[in-house]
Amino acid sequence: MTKHLFSLLAFLLLLLNFSIAQSGCPNCVIDLPTLPSDTIFLGSSPDGEAMVPYDEDVSFRMPKTTTPVHEIDPGTPAGLNISKLTIIAMLNVPPGLSWEPSQFEFDPGNETDGCVKFCGTPLVPGYYEMQIFVTAQVLTLNQSTSFTMSIYIAPSTSTTTGFGLQNSVGCGEVTVSFENLILSNGDAGFDYFWDFGNGEVSNEENPGDITYSIPGIYEINYEAIVDTSEYEFTTVQIVDAGCNDLSLPPISNAPPELYIKIKDPSGDEIYVSDKINNAPLPSAFNVNIPLGPGDYTLEVRDDDLFGSDHCGTVTFNRMTNDTLEDGSLKVELSIIHPVFTIQSTDTVFVYEIPEPPIIIPAGVNEICEGEELVLEADYAENLQWYKDSIAVLGATDSTFTTSSSGIYWVEYTSPDGCSSVSEALSLLELPLPATPSFSEDGNWLEVLNPDLLPDDFSLQWYINGDAIPDANETSFCNTFDGVNLFTLEVTDNTTGCTNEFSIGVAFDPNADCTVATNELAAIGQSLRIFPNPANESLNVVFENENLSEVNIRILDVMGRQVSSHFFQHISSEFHEKLNLSDLNSGIYFLEIFGNNGRVVRRIVKE
Asked: Please, which residues have CB within 8 angstroms of residue 267's CB and are 6 or more apart in sequence?
């Protein structure tokens, strides 16, 4: 399968907007428009808002074959069946959200439509790049991959009767915007008071943003006093008039026929009431006229058969709230002036950013190839480990074991949804020195290719796992009876990394260890082996002065002989072609044995 196909498979799997495998949001509803049967479609993922419940379904249709993929990327071959898509996990989901898909595995040949429900209450606003891990199968090839998708969680908003808040929840430091809902629009009669809960207050209609830099819970208290209504003179109550009508016969006092007149501060008559016949006391008149500033007069009169009598006059203004008297006249006025007070309360939550997790060990660490390093964080849970800025799937425990080079760090998320990250740790994987393969000739053990040893190295020979004292050279004479396991360990003194090679060796009582390895130095200097790597044959060429016969053998990397060649009557230039057709591909060692020495070279069979 080409890399184009897998890059497009990652695109296909954007259809699966899933978070870390969680449950608790069942029964999503598939809602798709009319679509071709073999196509790619993904519904939109709505934005959310911090501290506001979120419950959304996202529907998708996956392709049955790579044909729709080919239409997008011509580098992907068309017509291949996609046999299975498996959802593994999704990381960096907004804290507070859970998810549940319609299913985890899909066989696009039989089922292409699915959905996922996101639910919960996102805790912290932000733009989240979520990492999705999936496995795709095309033909017989499985490919695990990851890709990202984003979701935006807007800052929280809150509205009361009098005001609204924006960005009222956050971590570490929160800057809150306030919206006054009782606006004056430039009119007089509006007074405001804000108590922001952090010691700051304001009388402004529209205060500026307030930054809360200390974690805590802050209660916002708001008050608006609206004094925009007119003074309304509603009723006059005549408690005692002091004037009564005469009634004949006999001569006696009768109830008066009362009415009132009102004049404004300029002396203009603005109100005359209807008459109340035989008015009982107290009697009331409904006036309902607005009052401006200044003094008004109220005259009470008795309407007789032969004109009207003056019962008394009182002076008042819009602030009057006492009983007024003029002689025997007593009146009570009802003057109203509505003033509205709106009080509202809301809350700002600033959660503490947790202390960054600490990784042990810290700083720069080195390990040898094949070794493991255990990283440990000082938090027990709610962790996510990262390597080179990519979340490591399933790495959520307090310890994390790794064996590869990279930059590592860990993120901790508190129950409030606030996160902090550790300092980065650099891990460098050091290469092992080359395997110190050696051969056995009689009782003589010798490194096959000393040129592969590190520039600065040390050696140690072992027998059956025990170090042999003072056995630290590239060759060793076996004097131990029986069959034993010999091991040669090489240490790169620059890095401290080691490697080893072992073979079983049987002691030969009829052999000795006399090998003059320096006798063939001239041959080693002129030796040419070509081509290397070789295919069917290998040319061996060197200048010869003293050798009358030459033995050549080929050993595998375990020191076992795989072929041997004997030559006599050698001329001044040795040139022979060795047949390698029976050898498997791999690394071998070629040994040249003369009358009194040997030369070893590394060869590669393709």
From this structure: none
